[in-house]
Amino acid sequence: MVQPKGSKGLDGVVQPVRERSLFLEAYFDRLPDGEFDIVLVTASGPQKYGVSLKDRTRIEGQPQTQAEPHPAPAPRPPTDASGASHPVASTVRLLVQGDGPLLGDSVRTLQSELLAVGIETTIVVRGQPFNYTIVFGQGERDAVGLIALDPTANVVAVAIRGAFTQKGAANGAAKDLAKKLAAIRP
After folding, report:
1. Per-residue pLDDT tens for 14-42?
2. What global pTM score does this model have?
3. In contact, 89 and 124? CB cutoff 8 Å
4. Mind listing the pLDDT tens digit for each residue in 72-91?
5. Where do the structural domains in the chain lie, given as residue ranges?
6. Distance set, CA 22 to CA 40, 76, 98, 173, 186 (Å)
7. Sign of the CA dihedral 101, 105, 110, 115?
8. What's 90-184's CATH class?
């Protein structure tokens, strides 16, 4: 959600008209006037990120009418290392759980790696049908773990990585989990 800079509570909040994935994309039919804050609700509470007038100009790009939502980017077909595109072979619905500053990065890497092998992903919210629950955990010493559970909570794949940085560990674990899920997905 977004709200005017300096607002308290829910004053002036604008909710997205459409979301495409957890922490990936949100579309708004309007933005607050002037400077505003992007508000993310996390397990540790709301986090606000300020958007200056200069940032706003870059976000808005070309002017649009207020009634039009900002358009979604065109989907890109999956490609292999040579750049050849592949059709989407299947779609999986993921319920993502966990907490940590690299959760979004890890999920984006997982989705990208799966798309590269023809598996499109949709992030769902609790209560919607899903194929896998993805549990994300971030450790103290640059370690990240991802666990995939089936709908009956059976473990189907685990990827744990350590690296020089937590971001490297998060991306490595996501790539490892994508390979494992791709191997078991029809």
Report:
1. 877 766 554 456 667 778 888 888 877 66
2. 0.54
3. no
4. 443 444 454 455 555 566 78
5. 2-60, 90-184
6. 11, 18, 12, 18, 24
7. positive
8. alpha beta
